[in-house]
């Protein structure tokens, strides 16, 4: 394990399977065809995009501040979103010819760029070498994160009550759950410390999984002080933190929950309500030990199957390689609509 400034290189924690992952040789060709619109590459089995049958894709969305239920009930006019076949009229969002073509494992550039700006705005990671990769939601993201660090027979620290789908994922992967006591603010740091300090298992404990905001199934949300205490315990025992946080932007604090300096550090342009969001574990991470899972499932719609993973660049690189041999990247329609919504509409 090496330390670069304050960031720690956790690559020795990678499973042998993760260490063997390399860039897909076909995916490595995409950059050449992307840079030349007149080049039709048959090397990667890429069809001619002029033959795609989709001319435009349009939808109508609510205006910011309006209530979705009222839009449906009263048939109020919303905002139009249109994805064009070739020309997006100056928008940074890719046209359908690009959105629907084979591509690499990171995701469409316009959406990745937006999510990186959002991460910078809302979390402001404390180390420089971080990156983002698209996922098809947090269930997919969790599977990718687990494969990065845990083999069959390994153990993972979890809240004594936790997300049922995560439990099933651990079970099917042959990963043992080590329960940690929770209270009204989620996982108890002293209990985590006790479990780690008394551990006598054959393999070391290396990963802790939790939902810090609106914990499923208890609904508990960690306070800022609790998050700091939790992070210190993870530093003490050198744990990787999988921060599964689908409810982060659904916090409803009446008053600010962090001081002015912390709020300012996390603000870009005018991001309303930023001081009412409890700083994430990612925002407290100085070591590069947090891998964060985000999704649009709770803020747009679940079956868009779209999210993103944030963490140190060497971890994200391995997940990109994993994507290239599994999902490739999320659905082009979903990425295009979300990117158009976030970049041009809202």
Automatic annotation (TrEMBL):
Essential cofactor(s): pyridoxal 5'-phosphate
Gene3D superfamilies registered for this protein in UniProt: Type I PLP-dependent aspartate aminotransferase-like (Major domain)
Pfam annotation, one family: Aminotran_1_2
Keyword Transferase: yes
Keyword entries, A-Z: Aminotransferase, Pyridoxal phosphate, Transferase
Any one Gene Ontology molecular-function term assigned to this protein's record: pyridoxal phosphate binding
CDD domains referenced in this protein's UniProt entry, alphabetically: AAT_like (cd00609)
Domain Aminotransferase class I/classII large residue range list: 101-344
Any one biological process term the GO annotation gives: alpha-amino acid metabolic process
Source organism superkingdom: Eukaryota
Cited InterPro entries: Aminotransferase_I/II_large (IPR004839), Class-I_PLP-dep_aminotransf (IPR050859), PyrdxlP-dep_Trfase (IPR015424), PyrdxlP-dep_Trfase_major (IPR015421)
Similarity section: Belongs to the class-I pyridoxal-phosphate-dependent aminotransferase family.
Name of this chain's protein: Aromatic amino acid aminotransferase
Species in which this protein is naturally found: Smittium culicis
């Amino acid at each position: 394990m090496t330390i670069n400034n304050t960031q720690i290189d956790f690559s020795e924690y990678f499973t042998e399977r993760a260490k063997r992952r390399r860039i897909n040789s076909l995916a490595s060709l995409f950059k050449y065809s992307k840079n030349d619109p007149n080049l039709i590459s048959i090397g990667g089995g890429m069809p001619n995009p002029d033959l795609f049958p989709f001319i435009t894709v349009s939808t109508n969305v609510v205006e910011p501040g309006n209530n979705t239920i009222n839009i449906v009930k009263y048939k109020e006019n919303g905002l139009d979103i249109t994805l064009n076949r070739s020309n997006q009229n100056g928008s940074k969002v890719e046209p359908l010819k690009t959105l629907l073509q084979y591509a690499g494992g990171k995701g469409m550039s316009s959406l990745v760029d937006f999510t990186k700006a959002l991460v910078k705005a809302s979390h402001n990671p404390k180390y420089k070498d971080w990156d983002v990769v698209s996922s098809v939601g947090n269930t997919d993201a969790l599977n990718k994160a687990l494969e990065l660090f845990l083999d069959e027979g390994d153990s993972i620290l979890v809240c004594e009550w936790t997300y049922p789908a995560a439990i099933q994922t651990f079970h099917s992967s042959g990963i043992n759950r080590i329960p940690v006591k929770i209270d009204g603010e989620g996982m108890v740091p002293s209990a985590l410390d006790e479990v780690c300090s008394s551990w006598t298992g054959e393999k070391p404990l290396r990963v802790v999984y939790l939902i810090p905001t609106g914990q499923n199934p208890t609904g508990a949300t960690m306070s800022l002080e609790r998050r700091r205490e939790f992070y210190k315990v993870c530093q003490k025992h050198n744990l990787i933190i999988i921060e599964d946080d689908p409810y982060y932007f659904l916090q409803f604090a009446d008053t600010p929950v962090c001081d002015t300096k912390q709020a300012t550090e996390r603000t870009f342009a005018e991001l309303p309500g930023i001081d009412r969001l409890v700083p994430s574990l990612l925002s407290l991470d100085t070591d590069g030990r947090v891998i964060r899972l985000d999704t649009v499932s709770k803020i747009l719609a679940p079956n868009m199957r779209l999210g993103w993973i944030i963490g140190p660049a060497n971890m994200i690189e391995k997940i990109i390689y994993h994507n290239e041999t599994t999902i490739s990247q999320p659905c082009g329609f979903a990425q295009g609509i979300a990117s158009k919504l976030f970049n041009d509409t809202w």
